[in-house]
Amino acid sequence: MFGISVDANAEKTSVPVPPKPRRASLPLIIVAVLFIVVPFLTWYGTWFGRDLSDEDIAAYLADEKNPRHIQHALSRVEEKIERGDPSARRFYPQVIALTKSPTGEIRKTTAWVMGQDNKSAEFQQALISLLGDSEPLVRRNAALQLVRFGDASGRPELRAMLQPFETKSPIGGIVVSVLSQGSKISAGGLLARIRDASNAVQEFRSPVDGAIGKLAVKEGDAVAAGQTIVWLAPDRASVNDALQALAYVGTKDDLPAIESYAQPDASAETTAAAAVKAIKSRGN
Fold first, then answer.
1. From 1.20.810.10, 1.10.645.10, 3.20.20.80, 1.25.10.10, which CATH number describes the 46-153 domain?
2. pLDDT digits (tens, 9 = 90+) for 268-277
3. Half-sphere exposure (CA, 13 Å, Cβ side) for 194?
4. Cα–Cα distance for residue pair 188/108, rounded to 1 Å
5. Category of 210 on φ-ψ map: left (φ > 0), alpha (ψ -120 to 50) or beta
6. Percentages helix, strand, coil for the chain, rounded to the nearest 5?
7. 17 pLDDT above the threshold of 70
8. Is the pLDDT confidence value at 6 over 70?
9. Domain 165-234 class, CATH top level
10. Which of 27, 98, 105, 189 could form a disulfide with 110 if both were Cys (CB 3.0 to 4.6 A apart)?
11. What is the pLDDT at residue 263?
12. In whole angstroms, what is the distance from residue 25 CA to residue 73 CA?
């Protein structure tokens, strides 16, 4: 009988089998989630626009380990004061207590908040106490806010805002680097590096905004603790703030400092001229 023979060695035709879908790796999923969730939680936890209950405000104001919480709570108290919400007074003792905070930024923010209620005698007295603060920005903020009370106690600090600021080295050592004359700098910006007695290099940051007006040292110089490093020329914003404040509380004794900014082509000519006119109109 005849039949069809099949070659066992003939190539077999196979139907392609679709690959099995890969199972996503759990660690990769976790990492992806963290990339989304962690930034969101960080933003949410530090966003000052987030509302707080009164209980949250009280707790945040007492959270000494988290300055951001304190600042967030202070911003909520300020909003209550601005709205005329009488519940804000509940937090006044805590706000005043923050004038003793070890963090300069907290004390500065506290001064600003207290200035929003210029009918509070407790706030006024607390602001006066901040005029002796070790941080210049805290003193300046206190002096400016006192003007809202019609209080001229901060006049010396307001005048100082119009003058070059003398920055002094906090330690002794050798100057490794220092900004060049004319450089602009913000408060907290790196001003100089100094190598101390242990051969460690310490960073010296600017306590105020300004520009390098005059250098007292150069790289390689030896400096002692408390020795002048540079004089910072005042920045325009600070000058304008001081002039506007002195227009309300300044006296004839302040005119020489103010009139130096009333010269033609001066950056604050208009503001200075207005301050001079206001002071002279009071006849004091």
1. 1.25.10.10
2. 889 999 999 9
3. 23
4. 14
5. left
6. 50, 15, 40
7. no
8. no
9. mainly beta
10. 98
11. 82
12. 42
Q: Report the chain's mean pLDDT, rounded to a whole number.
A: 88
Tokens 């600017």 sit on residue: 206
Alpha-helical segments (H) within the chain: 26-46, 54-61, 67-83, 92-97, 104-114, 121-130, 136-146, 155-160, 236-249, 255-259, 269-282
The per-residue pLDDT for 18 is: 61
The two structure tokens encoding residue 67: 């300055």
Residue 167 has pLDDT above 90, yes or no: yes
Secondary structure class of 167 (helix, strand, coil): strand
Q: Residue 22: CB partners within 8 Å, gap ≥ 6?
A: none
| In the chain, where the domains are located | 46-153, 165-234, 237-282
What is the distance, to the nearest Å, from the Cα of residue 168 to the centroid of all Cα atoms in its chain?
21
